[in-house]
Amino acid sequence: MAALLLDLEPGDEVVMPSFTFVSTANAFVLRGATPVFVDIRPDTLNLDERLVDDAITERTKAVVPVHYAGVPCELDAIGAVAKRHVIAVVEDAAQALGSTYKGRPAGALGDLAALSFHETKNVTSAEGGALLVSRPDLIERAEVIRDKGTDRSRFFRGQVDKYSWVDLGSSYGLSELNAAFLWAQLEAAEELTRDRMRTWWQYHHGLEPLEERGLLRRPVVPDDVQHNAHIYYVLVPDLAARTEVLAELGRADVNAVFHYVPLHSSEGGRKYGRAHGDLRHSEETAERLIRLPIWSGMSEGQVARVVETVAAALHADVEQAL
Predict the structure, then answer these.
(1) Active centre residues (catalytic)
(2) Amino acid 318: pLDDT
(3) Could you tell me which residues come within 8 angstroms of residue 7 by beta carbon, excluding any fewer than 6 positions away?
């Protein structure tokens, strides 16, 4: 919907990180635009705001910061670049419901933002998402695009005596069953987040001794943001270490995974997009990252078992800080 609202066409370009899920790029490729992949920051694993300006050309129509692990990007800096070049900011806030940047909610910091309610997210409708629209001039057209390209919303408000096809669109609304499932979760969203934060901090304290010994690196969260505990990940020294740790976790019946083949190195990324500059942080992160299990209701004992298994795989003992 964001790509449709921006009237993207073949030849247009959209700047985004390479270290993200394919959905970030697909939305724009389907409109004929070219994703321009840039590197991430080595600390937060978010789009490196310092690289955005140089990646913009006369064909650039938007920049898409991705709030990885629910940690918001440096939106003030990205927004300033976008304003100077008169391009849109489309937040990929799929992982960031409930997160804030300098006290402001993620998803309300750009022109448009996409949320996800996929089954892996903190709040879920099994499938689905939301488009957040900050620009008043785009609201009416967003309604049309959502309703199969018709002006049905205006008809329901009594603004027209019948509705008809007026623009591009599709069936973007949630079913009533999905919406009801989601509503109950939204009502409990703050409680769910608090519970996830409890687990996140147990991981963070428990893994601190391993970081102090240089065996892994824990997540970095800037002081001016509040994340939502969507992901707890660790970065191990190299691909061999990650392979060993994942194998050990698997033998312990712990479902841990790595995260993202960088889009610029994928078959689709090479076909539909282009890389801008050196993307070594994206490539290194892709080989080192392990996403540990985290969910609302996870017990302290389960977290401790994961930490102990990671320590054993790295040939270390760790004293739990529960």
Answers:
(1) 121
(2) 54
(3) none
